[in-house]
Amino acid sequence: MVLIGIVVGFSAAKMSSTPIGGKVPTPTAQQPTPTPPADPVPAYADIAPVDPATDHIRGDANAIITIVEYSDLECPFCARVHPTIRQALADYPGQVNWVYRHYPLSFHANAQKAAEATECAAELGGNDKFWALVDMIYEKGSDVAKLGDYAKEIGLNQTAFKTCLDSGKYATKTAEMMQSGTKAGVQGTPGNLIINHTSKKVQVVSGAQPIASFKAAIDALLK
Fold it and tell me: What are the φ and ψ backbone dihedral angles of 69, each rounded to 5 degrees?
């Protein structure tokens, strides 16, 4: 049988379970539809634990709810949902935080190096510079040729940044993040997994959904 319907706001395939045979399909570009089917929800144990040592956390690190976003810095739908998730943090102060994990899709030529660039920003300037570069890339675009200028604009040393980016030292880390997303059922971006660390319950908000969808999921997890 052919399952018809693609998740709204996805730049690639919707989130789904691993198909029969265990082979995970390669994400492909597809057109969104206005009425997506319900997405399967992964088990809490299938989502890589949030680790302050390796994850990039925005908001209160001790918040009970985490929005784990698997994202692509060249994805237009990821750029669209970025301010929405920022709004969710503002609307639930101290209750919700945000973890950004890379999921650079192969058909986006700039996505991989943009992901590595944000890791270099984190190395050189910490968590705040990571988020500052993510924000800037979504605002101004992911052109690799401009990443050095972005680094300078957020206060990083351009020479050190270029050395880090050219080294490719964070390619493995971004690949591991993508693998963890695939294990949790992510096949497209943005893949938003919302988790309650106390109850171990999970909600999925697929794609660039409006703030009301995020609030409905968060409220359900706070009950």
Answer: -105, 120
Tens of pLDDT, residues 167-192: 999 999 999 999 999 999 998 899 99
How confident is the model over 126-156, as pLDDT tens digits? 999 999 999 999 999 999 999 999 999 999 9
pTM of the predicted model, to two decimals?
Answer: 0.83
In this predicted model, what pLDDT tens digit does every residue of 62-94 receive, in sequence order? 999 999 999 999 999 999 999 999 999 999 999
φ, ψ for residue 70, nearest 5 deg:
-95, 120
**Checking phi first, is residue 201 left (phi over 0); if not, alpha (psi -120 to 50) or beta?**
beta
* Residue 3 token pair: 């399952």
Which residues in 86-106 are b (16+ Cβ under 10 Å) and which e? Answer: bebbeebeebbbbbbbbbbbe
Q: Report whether the peptide linkage leading into residue 190 is cis, meaning its omega lies within 30 degrees of zero.
A: yes
The token duo for 37 is 């089917």
Instruction: Specify the fold of 44-222.
Output: Glutaredoxin (3.40.30)
Strand order in the sheet with 202-206: 56-58, 96-102, 65-71, 191-196, 202-206
| Cα–Cα distance measured from residue 156 to residue 130, given in angstroms and rounded to the nearest whole number | 11
**Token pair 């609030």 is at which residue?**
215
Provide the residue ranges of all domains of the chain, joining segments of one domain with +: 44-222
Q: How many helices (H) and strands (E) does the chain have?
A: 7, 5
